[in-house]
Structures are given as structure tokens and as C-alpha cells.
């Protein structure tokens, strides 16, 4: 029976970053991953020689002196990543059915204001105010800025402000309101719930700088994994945890699907907190705590079409496209049934094969889990993103994929003759392959009306069991990294760890 200082359940970004931090500090660490591929949402897959990302379509905050750049230097991966800088004057573009204009989000706050001021004459002062307030909000969250100073880990100043309402105070111009909120699929924006701080922390990262990972985001996992192993850490795939075993108030070991026991002094769960609770049999966890975690609403899911493009037919787009039928971009998240899709995002991966043409395209549109609930008792056990859940499910996916492609072609008609093949995935794909509860894009949904309820502490009621991952404070590469810092700070001291990161 193997014994470790720290056993980490799940090899998503938070689990790998925690493994690196603790291995670097001399802990004997083992990461357990149930699937063949490591990395959670960092995973890629290949169809007809084209590479697709499952989650990392672009990354922000990677310029010199910016927060994620500094973190990646600490993890010794920044200089190894193959990155492509996105369009400086319009890395994200927001469009609408009734308007030919592509409204541009630009990199750098001054440039962001300048580009939108061209498109919205008379709104410059409002845009300057918006940029100033977004930066002030981010500055209030010290860990986001890699500070260990005066402010609390979780400030309370901005938690109970609604993002949609805040943007409405910036400008009376309804179209500009929608443009400022137009990339809200980055955080599953819901006009009735999403807090302002979620909007600010996510948007700020990309305005600072925006990059695509050339040939996919799995390179982050590859370099992290290599560095962990060099530090003596162990990473095991096909190692599904089926039980977390507690004795006398502490976790003693986890049991794997093959019956093996893995012992540890400490355990970190990088899987959903409610899933963790289902694996844990312990009377030390009060029913109220279990019920609270089980009762938390998860963010909406998505339907995705991954298109292989015919060689040298479709020009590479160095930006992302966010499109809406109507002006109220906050309503798209609620659309289902025959009214679907109300909007979509288009991401074009950067391949090393060509600087002119694209190999592939990913189209994403919100989809509620209820739309696929009747097939929820089916589980995919075959290789990545190849499902077989019955003929009616396959027919559903084809119908929705064709509808989504047709909607995109209204805006991008040149796509029509460029498609070689496509595959699609539903909320069930997210659930089974990424381990996302209810197929949720970003874990637990935040709600400005009850903000503290959705903040999960890394500490649990069992002293040697901790959480990490996107369900702590924030999702996304930076949010998960901050979560790993919080979790590992419980072992080695948060200010010490921040000092190590800032001096890397």
C-alpha cells in the first residue's frame, strides 16, 4: 500500500499546480486521475489531424509583469509555452443580428477605450470611467494581484453588486451596455445573478493581454507534468477514486476502482466539492454541510460543434466572435428548445501549420443540462469525445449541430464550402469527460444576492482533506491558479508562497 505526504484527486490545472507547489517544497505527492488524458479542461483531442481544445480557447494576463505571467514563471513553464498574440485592436468582437458592425474589445486599457470610442462617439468619458472602475475592483482582490497584504482574501466591498446593473450605470446606451458585457460566455453571465467582481476579474485579464496557445492548451499540462515528475512527484492515470476513507476524524486512504488503497497524510480534492462528498463516508461531515454543497447551483453548460476545415480554404481569424440575436446579451443563457440558439461564440485555434489558414473551428452555444437529461443515465466509457448513447441522442446532436452551423453561416457565409467534417458534444460530454457536475462550464455558479454562500473554503470539516480547483473562488486559468495558491497556503503559508511566486 503506497503512502504519500499529499494525495491529490484529479489532474485538472488546480491539481497539477498544487502538486508542483508542494513537490517543490519537499512533499511526497501523488496525483490520481481517472481518465487516460491528464489536465481536465486543458485536454485537447484530434480529429482528421486537426487539434481542438476542450476548454482553453485563449488566455489572458501573460505579458511581462502581469499576474499569470508571474505565476507561470514560478511553475517554470512561461518560457516553454508556444503562444500567439491575438489582434491587439480587437481580440474579442461582439456582433448582433440587426447590425453589420463588429464591436471590438482591444488589448490594453487605453486602447480598449480608444477602439470603442471610435465605434461609440460621445462615450469616451463613460468608457474611461468603466476602465477605471474595472481596474479598481481587481485591485481590491489581493490574491488576484498576487499580494499578501492588507485586504482580506475575500473582500466584501464588491461581492453583492450585480454586473448587469453596474454596466447600466456606466452608460445609458443600450448597445454599448451589450458590447461591454458581450463576452459574458467567459463566465456564464446571467443578468439576474452574476456579480460584478466576476465580470471584472475575468474581463481585466484579457484586456491586459490575450493569447492563443499554438496547437492547443495541453502544452500547459505537458510542461507542468514534466516539472512535477522532475521534482519527485508521481502522477497516475486510469486511477479512479471510488471511496475516500476516514478513520478517527482523519482521511487515511482513498480506494481506487481496481481495489487498490493509496494512503496519505493529507488529501486534496480537485474534483467538484459535492462529488467529493459522495465519495466520502464520514459522520464528521455534518448533514447540513453536505446538503449545502449538494444544493449549490452549477453554471450552465454548452453545446459545442468542432469543425475540421478543408485545407487552405478558411482564413485564420486572430480574434474570437461573440454573436447574439438580440441586444440583451444577458438573456442568451436561458434560451432552450426551438428558440435555441440565441447566440454563440466562435473560436479559431492557432495551428503551427499555417499563419494564413485555419485547420479548425469551435462553435459554442449555451445549453441547459435539462435538454439532455433524458440520457443522463448513459455514460461514455470509450475514447475521448466519441459517444454512443443511442440513436435518438445522436439524432438530437445532429439536429442541434446543423442548426448552430446554419446560424453561424448567416454571419460567416464563407464557412459553407470549407467544412470537411465535424463532431459535436453536449452537456453530457462535459459531465463524463471533464468531470463537470451537470456539465457545468465553470463549476459552482456565483450569485450576487447570496455571495458568501458560493465561496468555498479550501479547508473542510476534516483537517487533512482540502479542496482546490475552479469551485473555490473563480474559474479560468487565473482563477484556478489563485485557488491552488489558497490551498497550498494552508500547508506552507500563503504569504511565503506569494513571496516565492513574486520572486521567480
Describe, in plain words, how this protein is organized in 3D:
There is one protein chain. With about 500 residues, this protein is α/β, with parallel strands linked by helices. It folds into 3 domains: about 1-45 and about 215-295 and about 445-500, FAD/NAD(P)-binding domain (3-Layer(bba) Sandwich); about 85-215, no CATH class; about 300-440, no CATH class. The chain has 14 helices and 20 strands. The chain has helices at about 15-25, 65-75, 110-120, 125-140, 165-170, 175-180, 195-210, 220-230, 275-280, 285-295, 390-410, 425-435, 475-490, 495-500, and strands spanning about 1-10, 30, 45, 50-55, 60, 85, 90-95, 100-105, 210-215, 235, 240-245, 250-255, 260-270, 280, 300-310, 320-325, 345, 360-365, 420-425, 465. Strands 1, 2, 10, 11, 12, 13, 14 and 20 form an 8-stranded mixed sheet that branches. A hairpin with a 2-residue loop joins strand 11 (about 240-245) and strand 12 (about 250-255). The chain is globular and about 65 Å long. The protein starts with a strand and ends with a helix. The mean pLDDT is about 90.
